[in-house]
Specification:
118 residues, alpha+beta, Alpha-Beta Plaits, two-stranded antiparallel ribbon, two-stranded antiparallel sheet, 4 helices, 4 strands, globular
Length: 118
């Protein structure tokens, strides 16, 4: 039987400067990690349950099978290895709603700095 990689969910660019954390409270395996201005999902810890995806009010979470998600998988993997875990809901970033549809957020605003975590 051929090896099939487990599916995972990833956080995409939409989360940058918004950082809504509704998703972290529903995650049964605590695979969300907090950066200064975004979240990521550890792809090796995600169990593909999908409960986080509908909780995101800005639709920043995508299954890795989504063409838009492919380019975010490495970023999620890299930063989930260095940022602190987050399991409790926090307030979104100030002016989060104003930045939802801002283009090129990764190039212009992404911060590699860690958040506070729990």
């Amino acid at each position: 039987m051929p090896y099939t990689a487990a599916m995972t969910f990833v956080v995409t660019e939409v989360c940058i400067l918004c950082k809504y954390t509704d998703c972290v409270e529903v995650c049964p395996v605590d695979c969300f990690y907090e950066g200064e201005n975004t979240l990521v999902i550890h792809p090796d810890e995600c169990i593909d349950c999908g409960v986080c995806e509908p909780e995101c009010p800005v639709e920043a979470i995508k299954p890795d099978s989504d063409p838009e998600a492919d380019k975010w998988l490495d970023l999620n993997r890299r930063y989930s290895g260095v940022w602190p875990v987050i399991t409790k809901k926090k307030d979104a970033l100030p002016n989060a709603d104003a930045f939802i549809e801002t283009p090129n957020k990764y190039q212009e605003y992404f911060s590699p700095n860690p958040g506070e975590g729990d």
